[in-house]
Amino acid sequence: MRVSVVDAGSKTVRLAVADAQGGLPLPVHTVKWKLRLSDHVAPDGTIGEAAVDELVKAVAAAGSAARRWKAAGPLAFATTVVRNAPNREEVLERVSSETGVRMCTLPGETEAELTFLAARRWLGWRAGPLALLDVGGGSLEVAFGRGRLPDFAASLPLGAHRLTQELLGPQDPPAPGDVKSLRRRVRHELRDVAARIRWEGPRTAAVTSRTFQQLARLCGAAAGRHGPFVGREMLRRDLREVIDTLSSLPAAERARLPGISAPRAEQSLAGAVVGHTALKLMGLRRVVVCPWAVREGVLLRYLEDGADWWAEASAAVTAPAGTAALTPPTVLTRPPRLPHARVGG
């Protein structure tokens, strides 16, 4: 069986086509379209008509490519930029009516759950109790679990692009005071979630997303050209040094650093601050960089649980558009395996 998934993120639309062999998605074709949706939204989060036009073209091209590769699907979803847009329903309706591809948005905690599944399958059971962090353009997903799916998952409004726009201001490079304000915001938002991860005491911590992959490269991890099977780690102390480097450079010069791409250069500092602050609050000194993320999680869950799972997940009602900043973080939690008396210890 050949399956495909389309992921519309804050910077790109990506298509992944995979063969299902032994329940694993083995990649046969990938392609991306650079749209930078997050750069073309109104102050209230509304996605402009021109940006929607480009999204429609990219999804149509992805659907055509999936058919050429004789893949079922595609399973299509959009992340935070579309999920939080006040005109989300209109955007999804245009994509569906003009491309024939039914695109949905997934709740943030569902994205965290799927990314956790991808990391668990990549790292295997020997990873033990596993913590997962995934920073995107609009949100940060955090999960922890001992099994196939997480016992705890949260989605927080700590995306690298979002924080750059809200807190780092027009000065390039940003003023030291703005960087301090950013760190305070991250500490405040992460306090409770970080306490839960620290209490659970993970054996392994994994990070995923393009932002973390690029930061790991800047910290000395192997370049992407060496393939996904090369082990990659990132140390908290190295990430702290990276913050000093990034905060001293304008975005144009950051793009010349190893691993930092031009589209993500501006938000790389915010991503580094989120990552370092999270690791410090959670008591994590070292993380594994996982090449699988939410797209692979969607494929895995589809292969393991069938089409009915996707029908149910893609029909899930997400938070009302435009209210993300007014509501508490989305949290999925299952009964903890440790005694309640240890909370806060």
Order of helices and strands: EEEHEHHEHEEEHHEHEHHHHEHHE
Q: Compute the number of strand runs.
A: 12
Distance between the termini: 49 Å
Estimated helix fraction: 40-55%
Task: Tell me the overall shape.
Answer: globular
Overall mean confidence score, pLDDT? 90
| Largest sheet report | 7 strands, mixed
Continuous helix count: 13
Structural class: alpha/beta
- Kindly estimate the percentage of residues that lie in beta strands according to DSSP: 15-25%
Low-confidence stretches are: 318-329, 335-345
* Rg over alpha carbons: 19 Å
Give the strand order, joined by hyphens, for the main sheet: 10-11-9-6-7-8-12
Overview of this protein structure:
With 345 residues, the chain is an alpha/beta fold. The chain has helices at 49-68, 80-83, 88-99, 108-123, 160-167, 176-200, 210-218, 236-247, 251-254, 262-265, 268-282, 294-305, 307-314; strands at residues 2-8, 12-21, 24-34, 72-78, 103-105, 130-135, 140-145, 152-156, 204-208, 233-235, 286-289, 330-333. Strands 10-11-9-6-7-8-12 form a seven-stranded mixed sheet, with helices on both faces. A five-stranded mixed sheet has the order 3-2-1-4-5. Strand 6 and strand 7 (140-145) form a beta hairpin. The longest helix has 25 residues, at 176-200. The N and C termini lie far apart (49 Å). Residues 318-329 and 335-345 have low confidence and may be disordered.
